[in-house]
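Wed. Picked up where I left off yesterday with Putative oxidoreductase CatD. The coffee machine is broken again, so keeping this brief.
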Amino acid sequence: MNQLIFRNNNDWTGVITRLTLGLILFPHGAQKALGLFGGYGFNGTMGFFTGTLHLPWLIGFLVIVIEFVGSIAIVAGAGSRIWSALTIILMIGIIFTSHIQNGFFMNWLGNQKGEGFEYHLLVIGLALAIFVNGSGKYCMDQLFLKGTHKLTGVSRK
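Structure written out below (tokens, as returned):
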């Protein structure tokens, strides 16, 4: 099971995709969790999720955790496949609950009712690449695999 989750191709593609995804998600998560970058912080965000969007408390909490903790874990390459899968699920949920009615394009010129879902598709694409390829070089996932090749007979590159 560890091999399935933590193995990676030990290449630069994984590094580039995980840093891109993690650094894009981090400010969004920091807005929600800490109130950085003009965000409302945990309490304000949870109030919006539960009061305005009528999401269950657990779903709102998971959104914050996936965007904030997940982004940090992806940058570090710690459980990137798990966090990428959760990010894909999150983005699909966001598309269908908040953005599908606004069409594909983002609202760069302010002439739409709301934002489209192109950003979310880009995030899904990056997360899918990490899910398939792994974390790449210089990742924490390599620490989780350390020694498992001795137990399973599987060699690491």
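Quick read: The radius of gyration is 17 Å.
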